[in-house]
Write a structure and sequence with these properties.
Layout lengths: L2 H22 L4 E7 L1 H4 L4 H8 L3 E7 L5 H5 L2 H9 L4 E4 L5 H4 L1 H17 L3 E5 L14 H15 L2 E3 L1 H11 L14 H16 L15 H13 L3
Parallel strand pairs: 1-2, 1-3, 3-4, 4-5
Helix pairs in contact: 3-10, 9-10, 9-11, 10-11
């Protein structure tokens, strides 16, 4: 084959390969987090989820002390839901409200889920964990789990059981600190929560994922990944 023709065929083949790759490239999964300081602590759940899953594009609207009721009344939150073309929207309620203000929690979730559905996305409920300073008020792992699973079943949402994973991990390593007295997660707590989200949203095991995320010990990363994998509703 003449050299000129060989170059011509090689060029055509390259164009075909480029076009094939472009057509088969999966679009990123777009995820919006709505919550408060539990969401933005330690760099943010959105950042850490992107570390675990490189195909994710994630953002957050997280305001310290905010409840989901406040988010539903906030025009900027609603605007973000409506314009983002999200695949999933993760809702994280103020840590005590699902138990001490349950009717408000349920109502806010229903309203936000309506907005999320209209935008074409799926609702994910991030079940938070037991605060050491709130047990006296009845805000326990069981109370939170019951509240999140009840409303999650009603609206057919994904429930990411981070609170149950915290309890499971601490039952095995009771001296390890996953959150402060007021419930704010340590780096390890955030890592565990995001491993639970990864498994709940994508249905994939986090075990063996190479993302460090502030947990420098490989053995502890493996422990938290396994705790997330072992926690089921």
């Amino acid at each position: 084959m003449p050299i000129k023709s060989a170059w011509k065929y090689a060029f055509i083949l390259c164009i075909i390969l480029i076009a094939f790759t472009a057509c088969n490239r999966q679009p990123p999964t777009r995820i919006l987090f709505i919550g408060n300081s539990y969401t933005f602590f330690n760099g943010g759940l959105d950042k850490h989820l992107k570390g675990l899953a490189s195909s994710v594009e994630a953002e957050s609207i997280a305001v310290g002390g905010y409840s989901l009721e406040k988010h539903f009344s906030d025009a900027s939150t609603l605007k973000k839901i409506r314009e983002g073309k999200w695949n999933y929207v993760v809702l994280q309620e103020q840590s005590q409200i699902p138990v001490v203000g349950q009717s408000k929690f349920y109502e806010a979730v229903r309203h936000l889920d309506d907005e999320i559905r209209r935008s074409g996305a799926k609702t994910v409920l991030l079940m938070t964990w037991e605060r050491p300073d709130s047990v006296v008020n009845g805000v326990t792992t069981k109370g939170l789990a019951d509240a999140y699973t009840t409303i999650g079943s009603e609206i057919n949402a994904i429930v990411a059981p981070a609170g149950l994973a915290f309890a499971n991990a601490m039952s095995k390593k009771p001296d390890y600190v996953l959150c402060s007295q007021d419930g704010h997660p340590t780096h390890s707590g955030t890592y565990l929560a995001v491993c639970v989200l990864y498994r709940s949203i994508f249905g994939l095991s986090p075990v063996g994922n190479g993302y460090v995320g502030g947990v420098t010990s490989p053995s502890w990363r493996k422990f938290f990944q396994q705790a997330a994998e072992d926690t089921h509703l």
